[in-house]
Amino acid sequence: MPLRFTLRQMEYFVAVGECGSIALAAEKVNVSSPSISAAISQLEAEFGLQLFIRRHAHGLSLTQGGARFMTVAKELLDKAASLGDLANDISGQVRGPLNVGCLLTFAQIVLPQLRRSFVDAWPEVEFHQFERDQQELFDALRSARIDVALTYDLNVPADLEFIPLIELPPFALVHEEHELAHLDSVTPAELADYPMVLLDLPMSGDYFLSFFTKLGITPMIAERTRDIAVMRSLVANGFGYGMGNTHPATELAPDGRRLRFIPMTGPVRSLNLGLLMSEGARGSRTVRAFIEHAQAEITETRAPGLQVRPKIA
């Protein structure tokens, strides 16, 4: 008798294997937990295998057979996805699912309008977006949970490809009555005597702190936050200065208070905003279409919400 299973069941199985939890897998693939449980049970019954060891306190762990099964299941899902890419190439159409990640520090500035213009141009694409920190984007690309990511060239590993789109020099931001607010540019040494509100995300925090370590200076970190909107509001309310690379369309913090953005000089490195992808991602016609669209919107015409302050020599 032929085996009876669906690619959807395989997708749910792989999600549970990667997450180690039915609840987390359900959140990842956006279905109910009972649907995930039913798919796993159906696969185990169909193949006559126990795929997971169920531990109430520690979630689910793959059995030895389940781990081998998952390797082949991933290959099967990759092959199935390639059929869609092949169909698009043969028909010359851009359609099907596209999973786009974006660094959460600038997702609100860049991604919505870029998505809007892309889906208007290619309405048959099923666009899904994911805001993550830098390490999470690396992991999502390697596990094929996303197809391409918008991010910075920050600690990019050798197994991923980065396409730069636009250079963004760093700036300091202060509240409008700060003692340094009148300056046209500012150095890390000038900032060091004032309290800092650090955007403390993986890799991003180290990037900003490197401005000071290069000078042998220890900055005065008064507050840390993982939310760039919170950082801006803390700065606007006088709790310290902040640093960033993407300038929003307005000089107001989320709570409506005014900010002053000051270009930074000295031993500070600009970041390139660009596209990050796994090897072979360009084989997808839909991914190629998104690359070309992002290059046109950001590199050539510059997305309206992406304000770039001039770099001071």
From TrEMBL:
Entry keyword Transcription: yes
Domain HTH lysR-type stretches: 5-63
Keywords: DNA-binding, Transcription, Transcription regulation
One family name in Pfam for this protein: LysR_substrate
Transcription regulation in keyword set: yes
Residues spanning the membrane: none
Similarity comment text for this entry: Belongs to the LysR transcriptional regulatory family.
Name this polypeptide is given: LysR family transcriptional regulator
Lineage of the organism: Bacteria, Pseudomonadati, Pseudomonadota, Alphaproteobacteria, Rhodobacterales
